[in-house]
């Protein structure tokens, strides 16, 4: 009997140990799972580390963007020559620009913000479409760009007054109807010129300030119609300072530089320094229609002096090679903003036909998607233009 009791006692103890063991496993399992799913953050960086930007040829994952972190994609001039809008026109008279820029739209769409420069006025068909030298472009082009995620648009260019005040009014009427899109550079009132275009994304407030050097000697009816900096530099810097005081991040879109020159001129150097000192966090330049170098100003403000053309039907290779870029805007716990993960890559605009005939089958694609047949010596050209971008500052990531 004693042996049986001892056996039963032992059995009870074994069962008790088994129950305790199972309970311990059930308690530990969610803790282990939580630890395996969490990502530790560095004590030196109180905010979560932003995930690295995707390569410019692939879409990022669909995971939500962390709070206080904004991803920005940006591109250059959209020069809507007659060949560009004719190539996009369908038999029913409407316009479809998707075949021309879908390769770029696929890259831009996943970013929180996407910027480009609307070189030519979007006055629309009611004003009569036209190409060089006095442009007026279909508003459907803007609609397409918005549909692919472009929500920051600079409109201060040397072609802003090509259609006079009626062109500016038609363009503003179009842009004002677009949801969650901000533009700056052309105005229909002095109040509009004095206001600061802004939006808030992921808890970060973004301001856009856009200025041009001239309007091709076309005098405005009113001085507030186009933001021009020549003779108004102090006013421009005052606006940048005001934007910095009110918003977390200021993007300065500058229409400047010497056309068809890869070298940065002295005016650009002077203005970029003054803009950064005034509070510009990011400077994106356009107008030369060729790529110019990149440079960090004050060690914290990335300046892209000229992005080149995003799309055009200009004939020289240098005008068909454009730059696209991306970066992270990170708002830190103390309220300051840091620009991280700055990168750039190259695009090329392909087309059939030669000037002076209309060009067709126009499409802008990343260099990585080009074949040697489409662009002979593409690797050599890539290296040549990579050297231009990094000639003033090599502290930028290029390539995939």
Fraction of residues in H or I helices? 25-40%
Distance between the termini: 80 Å
Number of strands: 15
Helix/strand-derived category reads alpha/beta
Describe the largest sheet. Answer: 9 strands, mixed
Strand content: 15-25%
Shape: globular
Q: What is the N-to-C succession of helices and strands?
A: HEHHEHEHEHEEHEHEEEEHEEEHE
List low-confidence stretches.
Answer: 1-62
Number of helices: 10
Average pLDDT metric:
87
Gyration radius (Cα, Å) is 27 Å
Could you provide a short overview of the structure?
With 400 residues, the chain is α/β, with parallel strands linked by helices. It contains 10 helices and 15 strands. Strands 1, 2, 3, 4, 11, 12, 13, 14 and 15 form a 9-stranded mixed sheet that branches. The chain has a 6-stranded mixed sheet with strand order 5-6-7-8-10-9, covered by helices on one side.
What does this structure look like?
Helices cover 31% and strands 24% of the residues. With 400 residues, the chain is an alpha/beta fold. The strands form two sheets. Strands 1, 2, 3, 4, 11, 12, 13, 14 and 15 form a nine-stranded mixed beta sheet that branches. A six-stranded mixed beta sheet has the order 5-6-7-8-10-9, with helices on one face. Strand 13 (337-352) and strand 14 (360-366) form a beta hairpin.
Record keyword descriptors for this entry:
alpha/beta; six-stranded mixed sheet; 15 strands
Write the SSE topology:
Layout: H1 2-37, E1 69-78, H2 82-88, H3 98-108, E2 113-117, H4 139-147, E3 152-154, H5 164-176, E4 182-184, H6 190-194, E5 197-201, E6 204-212, H7 233-246, E7 249-255, H8 266-278, E8 282-286, E9 294-297, E10 301-304, E11 309-311, H9 317-320, E12 321-331, E13 337-352, E14 360-366, H10 378-389, E15 397-398
Parallel strand pairs: 1-2, 1-11, 2-3, 3-4, 6-7, 7-8, 8-10, 13-15
Antiparallel strand pairs: 1-12, 5-6, 9-10, 12-13, 13-14
């Amino acid at each position: 009997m004693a042996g049986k009791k001892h056996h039963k006692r032992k059995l009870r103890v074994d069962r008790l140990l088994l129950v305790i063991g199972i309970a311990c496993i059930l308690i530990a399992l969610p803790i282990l799972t939580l630890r395996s799913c969490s990502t530790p953050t560095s004590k030196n960086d109180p905010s979560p580390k932003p995930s690295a930007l995707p390569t410019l040829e692939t879409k990022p994952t669909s995971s939500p963007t962390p709070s206080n972190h904004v991803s920005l994609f940006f591109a250059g001039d959209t020069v809507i020559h007659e060949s560009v809008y004719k190539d996009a026109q369908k038999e029913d008279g409407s316009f479809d620009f998707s075949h021309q820029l879908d390769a770029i739209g696929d890259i831009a769409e996943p970013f929180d913000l996407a910027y480009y420069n609307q070189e030519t006025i979007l006055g629309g068909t009611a004003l009569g479409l036209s190409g060089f030298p006095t442009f007026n472009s279909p508003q459907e082009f803007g609609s397409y760009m918005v549909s692919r995620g472009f929500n920051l648009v600079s409109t201060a260019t040397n072609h802003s007054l090509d259609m006079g005040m009626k062109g500016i009014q038609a363009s503003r009427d179009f842009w004002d109807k677009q949801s969650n899109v901000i533009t700056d550079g052309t105005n229909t009132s002095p109040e509009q010129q004095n206001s600061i275009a802004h939006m808030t994304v992921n808890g970060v407030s973004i301001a856009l300030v856009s200025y041009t050097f001239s309007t091709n000697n076309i005098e405005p009816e009113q001085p507030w119609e186009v933001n021009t900096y020549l003779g108004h530099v102090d006013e421009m810097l005052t606006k940048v300072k005001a934007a910095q005081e009110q918003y977390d991040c200021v993007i300065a879109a500058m229409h400047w530089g010497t056309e068809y020159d890869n070298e940065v001129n002295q005016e650009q150097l002077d203005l970029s320094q003054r803009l950064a000192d005034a509070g510009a966090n990011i400077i994106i330049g356009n107008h030369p229609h060729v790529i110019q170098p990149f440079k960090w100003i004050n060690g914290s403000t990335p300046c892209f002096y000229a992005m080149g053309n995003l799309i055009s039907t200009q004939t020289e290779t240098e005008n068909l090679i454009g730059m696209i870029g991306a970066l992270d805007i990170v708002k830190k716990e103390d309220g300051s903003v840091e620009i991280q993960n700055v990168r750039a890559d190259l695009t090329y605009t392909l087309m059939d036909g030669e000037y002076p005939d209309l060009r067709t089958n126009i499409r802008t694609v990343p260099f990585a998607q080009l074949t040697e047949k489409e662009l002979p010596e593409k690797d050599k050209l890539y290296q040549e233009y990579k050297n231009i971008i990094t000639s003033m500052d090599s502290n930028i990531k290029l390539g995939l």
